[in-house]
Amino acid sequence: MNHYESIRLPPEFALADSSASKVLPRVPTAHLLQDTPNSLELTTHLIPTFLSPLIPHIPSTSSIVPKNKHDLIPREPLPGRDYRPSELRKHSLTTKRIHTWTSPWAIARQQHLSKSLLQAVIDDAHNAMQKSLAPNTLSSYAAGPLRFNQYCDSMDIPEEERMPAHPMLIAGFVGHNMGKVSGSCIKNWLSGLRAWFEYSGARWPSDSPEIKMARKAAKKEGTAHKCPTRHPITLAHLLALFRALNSSNPFHSAI
What we know:
Blueprint: H1 29-32, H2 97-100, H3 104-116, H4 119-130, H5 135-141, H6 143-154, H7 167-177, H8 183-200, H9 209-221, H10 235-244, H11 250-254
């Protein structure tokens, strides 16, 4: 029996119904919406005193969250995430990588479109396409073009052959990383690579049997990299969230 299982509620919190004798009293919604001096903490008198030692102190995160998203600047790549310098792949934020990295084929297509369409039309189309994915998805998908171009650099694949790419090249990329990371990781890389291709107007070989077979193999070989099963959520965890989050904040409510 662990520390949390040994906790017993005092008599004043017990209910008449024996089947619900361990349920804490309901907190009125009005109390949850009350403002406090610290927007990240709720009124502490709602927490039973005998549970206070179990609830860790969580400092405010207001100093961590950027005040303005335009203040973000790209940082230097971490070890293992660096890539061969190229004018086609300028250093940028991960949320901008799919839209800013390009290829000789994408540049030629852009020049061809400029001959038949106004630049304003092309800009409007790009603006709409850039907003098709959420920032968190763009940041996650950015690993796809990065890892693919790292692989192409290591194999000295010419820039002209990277987009559109032959299915065997994409399957080789999967095979190179097979067993090194989980199957879900490779799946995310391919999703990011596909988003990069489609934004640039390049065809993605979704029906390729080579890619399908490579993905199946990567899923089987990557089972050793799966995250272990997590412990169940305890009452202390729920109370820690209750104390640290402000339900009147939509972002906190989503958590």
